[in-house]
């Protein structure tokens, strides 16, 4: 009887309902707090990514770096000693990269809402302009219009450099930060384009074996100089961003950041530098263009691996190391 009385007690039922309501309120409060915390963390992450990436998105950013490097290599090479077909194919490569950069800008990037409105427009137009100039250049080189092709290559160089500099400026952060990011973008593009262009030039000797070796020597020199400049900039960025570097390396464990930094420095910078020395010695000692091309292909793989790792690290920590 006593147990039945306790089970039927309306006071106990009311107390249970109050406790249940209290738990529900506390659960809702915890959910709201977690949501707010998640939004705050997401906003901080978005800001960090925006500052690090320069708002361009990795695909567009990487593509325009490569366009800049290729067009810079064209300006340095002795064009009169290279057959026109090489530049025609290079212009078609730029056409594809420009279209990719234009279409991929902002697609799937979590920072699209943070981009300045002017950069959202100009990024697509500049990338599309390089693609259009790539098509025009391919036509001019097909028609053996060397002067027109050279002018078109210079225009591509200017547009690609403008894209990278404006991309760095769109991230904001003051003039020192803008200058540092812009220099980083240009040096990265010079290394990527130097490696890819040199490798493609080495392959071109299969179709033009009688071509002078001087262009390949100069292309290899561009790879070496770009890698050395990238190394010097990395040392300077590490010194200037000591706190950031310490946060990457000073965690006492192998983290993703430490792996990205290692890939950037070891295969990404030192790799192309060593490959450039080897390719130069091969050409100097044996004159074997295809052996040098194989070495340069390794340099391309190293540079791609290193620069993609550098982009991931830069987007994460907000500072180019």
Radius of gyration: 27 Å
Percentage beta strand: under 5%
Distance between the termini: 78 Å
Oligomerization state of this entry?
Answer: single chain
Shape summary? globular
Q: Could you name the key traits of this structure?
A:
83% helix, 321 residues, 2 domains, disordered N terminus, mainly alpha, globular
Outline the structure in words.
The protein has helices at residues 2-7, 10-53, 58-76, 84-104, 117-142, 146-170, 175-204, 214-240, 242-249, 256-285, 289-317. The protein folds into 2 domains: 53-172; 175-321. The longest helix has 44 residues, at 10-53. It is mainly α and 321 residues long. Mean pLDDT is 82; it is low at 1-8 and 32-56. 83% of the residues lie in helices and 0% in strands. α3 packs antiparallel against α6 (146-170), α7 packs antiparallel against α8 and α7 packs antiparallel against α11 (289-317).
Quick overview:
This protein has 11 helices and no strands. It is mainly α and 321 residues long.
Please outline the helices and strands.
Blueprint: H1 2-7, H2 10-53, H3 58-76, H4 84-104, H5 117-142, H6 146-170, H7 175-204, H8 214-240, H9 242-249, H10 256-285, H11 289-317
Helix pairs in contact: 2-11, 3-4, 3-6, 3-7, 4-5, 5-6, 6-7, 7-8, 7-11, 8-10, 10-11
């Amino acid at each position: 009887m006593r147990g039945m009385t306790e089970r039927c007690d309306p006071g106990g039922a009311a107390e249970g309902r109050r406790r249940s309501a209290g738990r529900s309120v506390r659960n809702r409060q915890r959910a709201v707090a977690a949501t707010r915390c998640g939004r705050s963390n997401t906003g901080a992450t978005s800001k960090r990514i925006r500052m690090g990436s320069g708002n361009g998105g990795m695909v567009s950013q990487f593509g325009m770096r490569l366009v800049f490097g290729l067009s810079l290599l064209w300006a340095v090479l002795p064009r009169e000693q290279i057959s026109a077909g090489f530049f025609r194919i290079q212009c078609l490569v730029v056409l594809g990269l420009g279209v990719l950069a234009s279409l991929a800008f902002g697609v799937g990037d979590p920072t699209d809402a943070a981009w300045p409105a002017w950069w959202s427009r100009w990024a697509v137009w500049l990338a599309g302009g390089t693609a259009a100039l790539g098509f025009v250049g391919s036509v001019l080189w097909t028609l053996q219009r060397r002067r027109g092709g050279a002018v078109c290559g210079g225009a591509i160089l200017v547009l690609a450099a403008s894209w990278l500099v404006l991309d760095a400026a769109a991230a904001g952060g003051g003039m020192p930060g803008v200058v540092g990011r812009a220099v980083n973008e240009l040096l990265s593009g010079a290394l990527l384009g130097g490696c890819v262009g040199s490798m493609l030039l080495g392959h071109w000797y299969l179709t033009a074996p009688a071509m002078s070796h001087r262009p390949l020597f100069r292309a290899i020199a561009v790879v070496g100089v770009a890698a050395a400049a990238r190394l010097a900039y990395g040392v300077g960025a590490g010194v200037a961003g000591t706190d950031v570097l310490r946060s990457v390396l000073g965690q006492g464990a192998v983290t993703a950041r430490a792996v990205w930094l290692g890939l950037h420095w070891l295969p990404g910078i030192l790799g192309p530098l060593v490959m450039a020395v080897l390719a130069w010695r091969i050409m100097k000692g044996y004159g074997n263009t295809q052996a040098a091309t194989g070495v340069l292909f390794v340099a391309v793989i190293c540079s791609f691996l290193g620069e993609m790792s550098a982009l991931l690290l830069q987007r994460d920590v907000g500072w180019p190391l």
